[in-house]
UniProtKB/TrEMBL annotation:
One Pfam family in the UniProt entry: Rhodanese
Gene3D superfamilies per UniProt: Rhodanese-like domain (3.40.250.10)
Organism expressing this protein natively: Antrihabitans stalagmiti
Protein name: Rhodanese-like domain-containing protein
UniProt-listed InterPro entries: GlpE_sulfurtransferase, Rhodanese-like_dom, Rhodanese-like_dom_sf
Record-linked SMART domains: RHOD
Domain named Rhodanese: residues: 18-105
Amino acid sequence: MTFPHVDSVSVADLPADFSDSVVLLDVREADEWELGHAPSAVHIPMGDVPARFGEIDPDAQLYVICRQGGRSARVVEYLQQVGYESVNVRGGMVAWQKAGLPLVSDGSAEAKIY
């Protein structure tokens, strides 16, 4: 699935650090998030984005991630329609894990992306 009109980057091209002005928005479901996520990501499930996009600074540099890149591309399309500049992360958290980037979980189990 490709989204030619959606800007995207690979995990290798992501900034080294995230903050209030450089945001990694994880749009996966809560159960996916709990199993493993990027340490500094902001979690807003895809279905909640329309009601909660106001929680994100419109001036922030925004990178959107999901499991493999499909849901996040759709969220990027939506955010662009409501005036947010955002970029899709190609390959999503699967690519993040393959690249050996840090993962944390909300439970006691080792963080892992399935």
